[in-house]
Amino acid sequence: MAESESAGMKTLITGANGFVGSAVMHALLDSGHEVRVLVRPESDRRNLEKLPIEISEGDLRDTASLKRAVRGCDNLFHVAADYRLWIPDPKVMYEVNIQGTEALMLAAVDAGIKRVVYTSSVAVLGLNPDSSPATEETPSSLNTMIGHYKRSKFLAEQTVQRFIAQHRLPVVIVNPSTPIGPRDIKPTPTGRIVLDTIRDRMPAYVDTGLNVVHVDDVAAGHLLAYEKGVPGQRYILGGENMTLLQILQSIDEITGKTGKRTRLPHQLVLPAAWMMEKIAGITGMEPRATVDGVRMAKKQMYFSSEKAVRELGYRYRPAKEALENAITWFEENNY
């Protein structure tokens, strides 16, 4: 859809103060959308400052606030999610990611929303035993989901699919891989890997792999899904498949550091992560390593974006550029 066609379209976006959401919000503004954002009253709003947006205060666990937020909107981008690999009370994550998504989709149906883009995750997809890149069709099940985040997102996507089938809600699903780049204010678990590396806190690594993508390419993919995506279809928005060691070495190359790292076997890291979680349960401080994170790291989490490239015209830049932009942003913002 051209910018002129987007002019006057009012679009609600959830999670706009977060990492991926803020990138999507900027892409929407640049393409001419009139943007309303749903944010919690107590949320960090640094990513929203000085932008021509309308703020609607609310919470995914507050149905009335969702109905207010969608009223008068043409489109919905549901990007918000509780993304943590460790959480003291998992009930909150399920309430936000599943019940919150269900309540928002119902509000969208009632409000007559014309187009929805739902941000799922590659976390809900299956992985290939031979480590070849997985696709949208790689089989997965709830039983294969490791940890509360993956389980809650798997069930949330199933909820969205139900609304597509039963309510004919025109939802296009996108599955971002591992975004890296600017405005990672929290930061995300992946952003912490970048930070720990430039702070010399990553002397060791485990043998795993990730699909690294620039957060702004993910945002552009959201708009392509809005413009060209087929309702009911899912599209992986990814980038470059890299081992964790390759990621750490790329960061070293960018920052001009040299040195060797020790490869740690998963069975050695697992008890350390378990102990960190026990300490976190007492202190309330998030552990540096989690049991779920180590269990996930046993597999190479590689994905293919070929469907989005072919059907949406999606493009992604080299992972090194995403890492460079992330490092620059962290340095400029005194992280």
In the CATH scheme, what's the topology name of the domain at 3-183 and 211-242 and 301-319? Answer: Rossmann fold
Largest sheet: 7 strands, parallel
Number of helices: 12
Gross morphology is globular
Would you tell me the structural class of the helices and strands? Answer: alpha/beta
Estimated helix fraction: 40-55%
Radius of gyration: 19 Å
By CATH, the architecture of the domain at 3-183 and 211-242 and 301-319 is named: 3-Layer(aba) Sandwich
Cα(first) to Cα(last) distance is 38 Å
The CATH homologous superfamily of the domain at 3-183 and 211-242 and 301-319: NAD(P)-binding Rossmann-like Domain
State the CATH class of the domain at 3-183 and 211-242 and 301-319.
Answer: Alpha Beta
Average pLDDT, rounded to a whole number, is 94
Secondary-structure element string: HEHEEHEHEHEEHEEHEEHEHHHH
Write down the oligomeric state. single chain
The number of E-state strands comes to: 12
How much β-strand is present in the residues? 15-25%
Tell me the strand order in the biggest sheet.
3-2-1-4-5-6-10
Q: Low-confidence stretches at least 5 residues in length (pLDDT < 50)?
A: none
Quick structural summary:
The chain has helices at residues 3-6, 19-30, 63-70, 90-111, 147-167, 189-198, 215-228, 244-255, 266-283, 291-296, 306-312, 319-332; strands at residues 10-14, 34-39, 54-57, 75-78, 115-119, 171-176, 178-180, 204-205, 209-214, 234-237, 240-243, 262-263.
What does this structure look like?
Helix 4 (90-111) runs parallel beside helix 5 (147-167). The protein has a domain at 3-183 and 211-242 and 301-319: 3-Layer(aba) Sandwich (Rossmann fold), CATH 3.40.50.720. With 335 residues, the protein is α/β, with parallel strands linked by helices. Strands 3-2-1-4-5-6-10 form a 7-stranded parallel β-sheet, with helices on both faces. It has 12 helices and 12 strands. The model has no long low-confidence stretch (mean pLDDT 94).
